[in-house]
Every structure is written in structure tokens, then in C-alpha cells.
Amino acid sequence: SVQIVWLRRDLRLADQPAFHAAAQAGPVVPVYVLDDDRAGDHAYGGASRVWLHHSLDSLARSLGAHRSRIVLRRGDAPQVLAALADEVGAACIHAMRHYEPWWKEAEDELRDALGDDCKLCLYDGNYLLPPGSVTTGSGSPYKIYTPFSKAMLDVMPPRDPLPEPDTIHSPDSWPDSPDLQDWQLLPAKPDWAGGITDFWDFGETAAHDRLDWWANEVADYDEGRNLPSQDITSRLSPHLHWGEISPAQVWYKLKDKRSDGWRTFAKELIWRDYAQNVIDQFPDYPRESYRDYDERKLWRNPDAGHLIDEDLECWQKGMTGYPIVDAGMRQLWQTGWMHNRVRMIAASFLVKHLLIDWRCGEQWFWDCLVDADYGNNGVNWQWISGTGVDSNMFVRIMAPLTQSEKFNSADYIREYVLELGDLSDDCIHDPPDEKRGDYPSKMIGHKEARERALEAYRAAK
Ligand code: FAD
């Protein structure tokens, strides 16, 4: 009998337990449902839609090699899937479990919507371990990263990755499906996504090529991961986010490296699991703060009105006058990705130098990142702002100019802030006025911003 595989952020064939089980059970109908309403303010942003288009295209080609396809449907996922199950006479819908609150709800609704002839089977495998697997001594889920990470390392490695199914049988007839182009996930004119398509290769094969490259570089990660000018991070984040590769595959490919670099990298992969544990416990985490004071009092938004809009726009466009912040924001706009060290500096700048609510930054990143991830984005913004369950870091105010120099960001700035392309290493981090040309002066001095932020914090407490 026919088996449906419901695809979401798990766009791969190898180590995809839902696909694996379906392929063993009968002819397979893979389906992707574009459900734009369910996630509300976290519907896919522009950059995510570009990635999704290319990733679906790539998966459809891989399935073509098995004489299989992806059926595309649009609408409310549980209803669409229940109708498709009726249409093809499916015995089971197989799906990877997802932890965003709207997907957890959709899974429950789908179970209720299916008749007696079709069941829903959910599988884990997009994370090293399912959220909630490691618990504190008293049996509760962890809230804080460091003990969570220690507990995870104690139970690693993850299970062995599964191979790609040898054979994927097709149904006798295929349900109708529109052409992927008809979904218009790519921008029309102007084509702002050119930088994204130049910067990335999409899909499962590209993810494994990237991992092969990374296996030779990971030893240098411990030293190199903070240097934005150098290519010493894996850039696997969009591939992991879209499930083009699984964390277990990454772990097994690298685990024999046994370098300090690998150990540090493993802890970053664990951050990804940590973020899912957080949103599993606190579904509104990317929207709500979890401090015992009214953190909204920190932000200038309520009384500064249009000034905030202008300040926010300067930050979004990379025109703050702080070269490292601007290089990061322009890298984000052009490529859909930003180096982690610079994400921290740019996020801290918005929240502490400009005193703008972190939710504005979270939403901009959500729209612009190709790896925009409900858990990772929300957890990192709250971590920087000191408003979440993990840290209370508001008073740790990063100094952008010192950070820029300390982590040798000159080449990175030259690459993205073209107005400063001719400046030497010794002045590019903080150019004197006469060397700025068309580049703006600083929106606010660091010392003044720091004092203002600390004062706001005292007042909010
Ligand atoms: P590597 O350094 O090679 O790390 C390997 C993998 O570990 C990454 O691909 C990612 O899956 C995971 N990882 C690394 N750091 C973190 C972290 N701090 N938190 C969670 N997982 C991590 N990451 C996202 O995937 N999506 C987001 O939406 C996102 N938003 C962020 C917002 C802010 C304000 C900050 C400070 C960080 C954010 N990050 C996010 C985390 C991190 O910046 C990116 O995962 C990383 O830069 C991706 O590059 P990479 O693949 O080369 O990472």
C-alpha cells in the first residue's frame, strides 16, 4: 500500500528515517506542502524561500534518479495531507518530527484528521538526540547550555546514520502537482537573490561536498572560528537547517579527527540541539523574554518612534558607521549568511548601542538569513540580549572597534564595505573622518552608548 513521506526541513534521502521506513513499506509519494499561514510572524522569509526553491529542485532531481518525484501542494498542511492520503489510498504518512510550535500543532491536527485507514508515523533524526532526551538529576529538561552540553557529550556519539534507500518504488499513478516555478519562491525583478545563488550550492550533494571540505579544515576551527576574514567555519548551517544533511552524518564524518578543533565544533553542534530543547520547553521563546524585570523598559522603541525606524534602517542597511557591524549587515544582505562572531557584534550593537528591542533584529535576521531557524535565531538573540532563560548578559557590552581589531577583520571589512576598500589595516576598523569619504560617521560613540545602555538597565531593573 502507498506510503506518503511528508517533507519539511528534512530535504535529503540518506539518513532520513521517515524516507527509509516508507521505502521499505511500499510505493512512496513524497510531498512538500507550502503552508504560509501556519507559522504567522515566522512564515518563511525572503532568503529562506530562495533556499527552499533550490533545495526542492535539487531533491526532485535526486528522486528523478530513482524514477520518483516530489508532489507539491499548497495550503493548510493537515488538511492537504489528509486529502492526499484519501486520494492515493495511503496506509501511512511518514514524517520527521519538528519542534517549532506550529509544526507540533500540525502533527496533532493531522493525526486527528486522518481516517482509520491511514496512520501518522513520526521519526527523529534532525538533531543529535530528540529534545528532552537528556535531563537534569531531578529529571527535568535543561534550561542552561553548559550543563546541557556536558550531559550531551556524556551520551554521544549519536546513532549510526542510515544509508540512502536503494530503491524507491513509485505508485501506479502520480497525483497532480504544479511546477515548482509556479510557486514563485524566487524573487522576480529586481533579482536581489543573485548574491545568494552565487555564494551557495544547494541540496544534499552540495552539503556533503561542503562536509568533505570541512573534514580537512576542522582541526583549525578552535583558533580560526573567530576570524571573519578567514574561511574557518563549516558554513553547514543552511544545509543543517533545511535537513539536507543530518547532524549524525556530520558527527560520524568528523569524529576521528580528535583535534581541539573538532571538540569545539562538536559543542557548536550541541548548541543547535540546545536551541531545540529550549523551544520545545518554551514555544514562544523567539517572541517572549524570561527575566524577572520588565525588559521592554530597556528599549527606546516606545517613546522614540520614528527615530527608531531610522536607526533600525541604518543598522539593516549596514550604515551605522562601525565598519565591522556594517560589513556583517551587508554580508547578510548579499549572501544570506553572516559570520558568527559578526552576528554577535551586530546583534549586540542593535540591542545595546541602539537600545532597540531584540525582536526587531530577530525579525530582520529571520527574513534575511538562509539558515533562519526558529530555535537558533531566537535563542541566540535572547542570549545576546540577556533576556532569555540561559544568561543575563545585558551588561556585557561588546566594543565593536576592539572586537574588529582583535579578530583581524580588515580583509572582511574591505570585502563588504567597498567605500573603505583602500584603507590600511591600521585605520580601517575606525577610520578618521577625513578618510571616510561617502561612508557615514558613527551613529553614536561607544562610550556614550555604553553608559546609556547601563543606565537603561539600572532603570529597567
Ligand atoms: P559553524 O561554526 O561551522 O558551526 C557548525 C554548526 O553548529 C552550525 O552550522 C550550526 O548548525 C551550529 N551552531 C553553531 N553555532 C551555533 C549557535 N550559536 N547556536 C546554534 N547553533 C549553532 N544559526 C542558525 O543556524 N540559524 C539562525 O537563525 C541563527 N541565528 C543567529 C542569530 C544570532 C544573533 C547569533 C549571534 C547567532 C545565530 N546563529 C544562527 C548561530 C551561528 O551564528 C550560526 O549557526 C553559524 O554562524 C553558522 O555558520 P557555520 O555553519 O559556519 O557554523
CATH architecture of the largest domain: Orthogonal Bundle
What share of the residues lie within helices?
Answer: 40-55%
Contiguous helical run count: 20
Strands, total number = 5
Rg (CA only): 23 Å
The set of bound ligands, ions and cofactors reads: flavin-adenine dinucleotide
Q: Provide the CATH superfamily of the largest domain.
A: DNA Cyclobutane Dipyrimidine Photolyase, subunit A, domain 3
Overall body shape: globular
Question: Averaging pLDDT over every residue, what do you get?
Answer: 96
- In what order do the strands lie side by side in the largest sheet? 3-2-1-4-5
Alpha-beta classification = alpha/beta
What is the CATH topology assignment of the largest domain?
Answer: DNA Cyclobutane Dipyrimidine Photolyase, subunit A, domain 3
Order of helices and strands: EHEHEHEHEHHHHHHHHHHHHHHHH
Main beta sheet, described? 5 strands, parallel
From the N-terminal CA to the C-terminal CA, the straight-line distance is 61 Å
| Residues in β-strands, percent | 5-15%
CATH first level of the largest domain: Mainly Alpha
Our count of domains comes out at: 3
Low-confidence stretches: none
What does this structure look like?
The chain is α/β, with parallel strands linked by helices. The chain has three domains: 2-126, HUPs (Rossmann fold, 3-Layer(aba) Sandwich); 127-157 and 203-281, Serine Threonine Protein Phosphatase 5, Tetratricopeptide repeat (Alpha Horseshoe); 295-460, DNA Cyclobutane Dipyrimidine Photolyase, subunit A, domain 3, CATH 1.10.579. It contains 20 helices and five strands. The chain has a five-stranded parallel β-sheet with strand order 3-2-1-4-5, with helices on both faces. The N and C termini lie far apart (61 Å). The mean pLDDT is 96. It binds flavin-adenine dinucleotide (FAD). The site of flavin-adenine dinucleotide has 27 residues, from helix 9, helix 11, helix 14 and helix 16. This is DNA photolyase family protein. Residues 1-128 form the Photolyase/cryptochrome alpha/beta domain. Keywords: Chromophore, FAD, Flavoprotein. It comes from Qipengyuania pacifica. Belongs to the DNA photolyase family.
